[in-house]
Amino acid sequence: MDVTSPRREELLNQALLTHWYENRASGRRLLQQLTSALEKDLDQAFGYHMLVTGADIGLEFSRLGKTQRVFRLIDRATNSHGNDLVRGVSSELPFASDSLDVVVLCHTPDTSPLPHQVLRECQRVLVPNGHLFILGFNPVSLWGWGNQMRAILSSRRRRLRAVGSRKLRDWLTLLGFSSSEPRYLSAVTPVGRGAVYRFLEHLDSWLVRHNVGVGSVYTLHGRKRVSQYIDTLSRVESRPRLISIPLGKTQGGVPVPRRVSRAGSGPLEPQP
After folding, report:
1. Cα–Cα nearest to 103, from 76, 78, 72
2. pTM here?
3. pLDDT tens, 19-36?
């Protein structure tokens, strides 16, 4: 299944993320936290088909979710083969409308040059009440501030465009999604040895456990909502007809209705 080649910028950003998760201690620690968090989130997502897009960060979604089949969106440069691999680009998903039960974006809004289009494609391919899980970098964190500083000091000027959870939830609302509160992970990376390492490790665990909004990465769960269609025309046409009752002479100042003839009967006759 082939579509237009992914953009070069998105591929480079995905390669940087894959390298970071594999070779940095902070990336490996974050991967453990993501595995634990997504195992709980995906446990409530039932269905037949799941699609995973974005960077390959080492998560085994076939073991995490309860869907029967997991598709992985890849680029043309990948030499892997398999029935669950689909070649395409996240902003032009090669799937029919209302065909997927779960979509997972692994930092896709951070790496794609067209994050709005990516979300619109997710809204198109998801079934009603389908699940959307997003992994994204938090710009208001140690990682986010470091990313900004690297962009200022580095001559290459290459950095990820981290999309904050608040902005992302606003975009999802405009597309008809409901979303839960984001879950923040990896607030502090333990460094050093001995007591310093243990202190930072306990501090990070406490911040993650209390979901303090300074984590380097957040997970966001959204669901595609479909507004109920109300046929106002049929409601108007189904109203009962009002029957006019002609009034006769008054008795004691109160009008007395005259006898109303049924269809096919004679003319109206006053009451005796």
Report:
1. 72
2. 0.75
3. 888 888 888 888 999 998
